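Example 3.
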Amino acid sequence: MKLQGLAVYGVDYLEVGTLHGVLLRSPVPAGKITRFDSSVAESIPGVRMVCSALDQLKFKAGWVLMDQSLFATGQVRYEGEPVAMVVADSREIAIAAVATLILEIEEWSPINLEESMTDRARLIHPEWESYLPTGGTDYPRHGNLASEMVADPGGVDAAFETAHQIIEDRFTANRQYQAYLEPKSALATYMNGRFTIHTSVQFPYNVRDRVAQLMGVRISDVRVIGHVIGGGFGGKLDASLEPLAAYAAKVTGRPVKLTNSREEDMLTCPSRENAIVSMRTAVDSTGKMIARDVQVEMDNGAYSTEMPWLTSLPLHIVSAIYNVDGPTRVVSRLWYTNTAPTGAFRGVGGTYLYHALERHTDSIANAIGQDRRAFRLERLIKDGAKSLSGQVLHEAGILSEAFQAMEKIAPWSSILSELKPNQGIGIVSGVWMTNPMPAQVTIKVNEDGTVQVVTAATENGSGALSMGVTQIVAEEMGINPRNVSISMPDTDVSGYDAGSQGSRTTHVVGRAAKDAATLAKAQLLKGASDILEADIDDLEIVNGNIRVVGSPAPAVTVAQVATSLLWSVGPLTTTSSYMTPAPAYDVACGSGVMFTAMATPTYHVHLAVVEVDEVTGCIRVIRYIVVQEVGRAINPVGIRGQIQGGVTQGIGLALYESLRIGVDCRYVERSLEAYRLPIALDIPDVEFVILEHPDTAGPFGARGVAEPPIVFVAAAIANAVSHALGSSFNDMPITPEAVLASLASRGV
Amino acid sequence: MKNTSFQLNGKTCSVSIDPVTTVLEVVRRHLGLLGTKEGCNEGECGACTVLLDGQPIDSCLYPIGACEGRQITTIEGLGKPDSLTPIQSAMLETGGVQCGFCTPGIVMTLTALLLQNPEPTRFQVKDALSGNLCRCTGYSQVVEACMMVARDSEGKI
């Protein structure tokens, strides 16, 4: 369908009589709204409604903290923040009407991360204390400090006093924009106190919650219907235009649609946050790491999305993989700034955290004069290693296996010896997780023997549903995958699903699907055993036929049994729910630890070979190799797609994509012309090896696959470039300007 | 407003509209063909790619007024409802389609490439794709699909 242009994406969806909403967005990053006048707009023919904070309901909302309103209220906090909305018969009329709105703002000096970090800047949210946490439990935050995690086991400073050598590094990372090809949109209708939202989002149930919060209704008064998604990568996990469309639908009594232009989308998308990471490690005279001190400063933007939870992510990464024989202190802070709210992009902060860890590891290896791969192998964690949160990584020994697999396909010493003068090699490794959040799957067996899988899980294109879950159900039930259909999300119909994030769909939804399929199979076998007068244990289902094992004799089809059951006991429908049990951790490991463990961990090794063009400063990735633990490969073509796609996004992050915040707190890059996404010519064919150690809880042993390929790429490339040029590239992305500057200082 | 007549997917079509209106806008809003996508509206992403007299263009930048008497082909004009063209089948097989939003544009670009150059090199395929952004696949499987068609086609597309 996609190949023929027949798939209906969120942007394509329309209903009869749809009105169009266009937003007036703040042109400045910070200031007090002193005047708003919509009288001209209201009188334009075709304009149905004009609204702003002056009319809207005073409800607050948020995923973790309720600090957001429908419109900017009294003040604006970031460039692009919605201030008002015009709804009209056509988009053109709405755009023209928006241009007549009078908005006056007394500008304040906008606050960026550097200034917010001082903790002495103007309060971006003077009423921060009145904000309520969405989940009920508050966490460490005050003023512009949106969230803080401190893990200090003690003994760090003492260990540094005894150090033979102290290696210290500072890393910066710019924001990365998800840049899904389909801009955000939403269409809403309102009837009898209920809102229906049509949108293409990764997490329909979360969007439901946000709309309910902002409209001041129960969550069951909001229905979210999902359409085909043109990419998300984390940027479509939270609501954006939906609450605005909902409000407009309620006031006008008509369907209302809003669509972001690409510029709007870029300016307001919850991009991966910019961050500053400082790492210090004490090393003894034998080269053993004896203590580490890490500080992370993250940019929250003007409002909190899920970022407060992610403030604790550094705890799981900064000493994750290479043994530090002593204490690690981690202080991680999230700061409000007058910029667009930040959020999740595949891998979240893992990309810059592994970048920091692995650059720092190379730095230490170089400082003590040890080969970078040997340094890592010597200190690699093993089965049973404890993370800084106290989680036991039972299978960390897979890392060693992964390094060996990498060595087979890319022998380190021989590549090193064959490198040309302007080439470099980098190797990195790490642990990642599979998001554990809940899923529910219902299986209906139709009278024609086909199966309908009802789920609110979203197929974002990875194939987790269209290939993975489909195959899991077909395999379990003994039917042809072509006879398995998967529903689109509808929060009125399907049970809660935490959406496509953190590689959870194949593992969590797949598990719920498999369990439901097992129940359905049991009912089919029971029905068949009555019909065939055979023992249940002697029966099997093969290609839609239920028969006695190994016998070619009279069989009965799934269709026949399903029909027979319908008219004897009732329709054959089964349901199963699943959530990954939370791994045990040490509750005393720190304060403000909201992200507590890496559920269903997977292990990875990445290797990059790069070449530097000494004239242009451009970096070419000559070779990129991934070794990844997947548990069990359900669909190899799908796995390849996720690895190739994830690495490509990682290469973009490492070398091309730069979403910078200017001195005026406005984005410097504001279009796809300036924000340089990778094209086909930039990307090598990624080589990969998958390891399969089945996870006991996963469907057929599968673990999460899709998110981690991006996580380690910037780290591997930065290490390779630093090696090629003999200098440290600790800022992301590595620009040609930075490369040329480095070459110039080398006297080349 | 001006009358512009052109061939759309092999059928004569006529619109009475401001000639500056983009081909993308005409195709999606006025002719109801939603397969051609708007990704950026500034000629950067290629999701809006259609063929004009067999050449790929960014329909978001091209005025309909300049299409008088010419042939426009959109994704809906390729193959038949029940059958995919060779490049479409190949992309399905190699895994070159994930979210699919860039897919119509990429199919148009590769269709045009294969018509002009039935046996392109990998570099030529990648070069032809310079105007098509894909955020999901990382391109390799898309390129492989094109190479597969080139190998199997023996000159027939």
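Chain B touches chain A through 51 residues (CB under 8 Å). Strands of chain B lie at 2-8, 11-17, 49-52, 55-58, 71-73.
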